[in-house]
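Journal club prep — side note

Before the paper discussion, L.F. wants everyone to see what a predicted structure for a comparable chain looks like in C-alpha cell form. Sequence:
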Amino acid sequence: MTGQVQDYVLAADREKTVSTYASALRNFEVVWKGLLPATTDTVARYLAQHAAVYRMSTLRLHVAALSRWHADNGFADPTRAPLT
C-alpha cells in the first residue's frame, strides 16, 4: 500500500472521525428516531427533513456515517441505492 493510500485508510478510523460518525448516528437514531439498518426511503426522508437545518457538508457527513455503519455491519448501503 502506498503512503498516500495508507494515510487515507488510517484517516477513516482516526479518533475524531469515529467520534463525528458516532454523533451523526446518534442524531439519526436517538434524535430523529431512525432505525438501523436503514432503508433508502428512510435515509431520503432523514435528509429531506434536515436539508433546511444542516449545511450540505454536514448532510454529507451524516450520509458517510450511515454508509460506514452499514458496511461495517454487513448490510447493503441504503445511501448508494437509487430512489425509484
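L.F.'s comment for the group: The helical segments are 3-11, 15-31, 40-50, 56-72. Keep this in mind when we get to the figures.
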